[in-house]
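Page 37, continued from 36.
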């Protein structure tokens, strides 16, 4: 007989996870000053605002991923959606980078990059074009979908979470991600991250676990 899934009885606020590395760890490519503002002010504000918006509402009992998926397309939930997306996207972004990132992906992803893009340089070019070419604020993503890897860009806070795609890596191209270090030279910021900071271990884990399995089970 199938067991019933107990519903979470305690509502815990969405939290701001700690950075996966010290604030100065990405220097000289992204300064401690940028990370300090970006994480400590921008990311924190999205988290705080989200908790404020969902207080006393059904979303307060949902995982962050579910809040994004279940508020997409609902006009009355737009503010919740935007802050939930930006909360999730930033955590994903921090993990998409690491100090002394791998110059090349491990074999499993390298093979998929080869078959999907024709080679690592072709992938880098496509990822950079998506990031640099995103008009205004947004994100560039490496995703897995239908057995292939793809590069997509999304405007504002949008992300691939509500789709069938599995996000593997992301790059924040809002001006707050680079303006203190690079001013209007988004292209230089994008190149610096792609050439020096990509966390291919994180991409590999995401590829292995897929989109749906990142959800945390309810705590008993
Ligand atoms: Fe950002």
């Amino acid at each position: 007989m199938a067991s019933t899934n107990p519903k979470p009885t305690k509502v815990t606020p969405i939290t701001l996870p700690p950075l996966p590395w010290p604030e100065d760890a990405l220097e000289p490519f992204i300064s401690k000053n940028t990370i300090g503002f970006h994480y400590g002010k921008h990311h924190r504000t999205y988290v705080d605002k989200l908790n404020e918006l969902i207080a006393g509402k059904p979303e307060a009992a949902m995982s962050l991923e579910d809040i994004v998926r279940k508020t997409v397309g609902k006009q009355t939930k737009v503010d919740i959606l935007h802050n939930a997306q930006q909360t999730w996207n930033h955590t994903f972004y921090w993990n998409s980078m690491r100090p002394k990132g791998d110059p090349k992906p491990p074999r499993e992803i390298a093979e998929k990059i080869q078959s999907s893009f024709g080679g690592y340089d072709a992938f880098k070019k496509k990822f950079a074009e998506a990031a640099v070419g995103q008009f205004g604020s947004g994100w560039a993503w490496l995703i897995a979908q239908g057995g292939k890897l793809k590069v997509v860009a999304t405007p504002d806070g949008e992300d691939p979470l509500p789709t069938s795609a599995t996000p593997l890596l992301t790059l924040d191209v809002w001006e707050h991600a680079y303006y203190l270090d690079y001013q209007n030279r988004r292209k230089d910021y994008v190149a610096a991250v792609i050439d020096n900071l990509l966390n291919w271990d994180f991409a590999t884990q995401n590829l292995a676990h897929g989109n749906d399995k990142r959800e945390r089970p309810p705590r008993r």
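The chain has eight helices and three strands. Flag for discussion at group meeting. The pocket of fe (ii) ion is lined by residues 38, 42, 90, 172, 174, 176-177 (CB under 6 Å).
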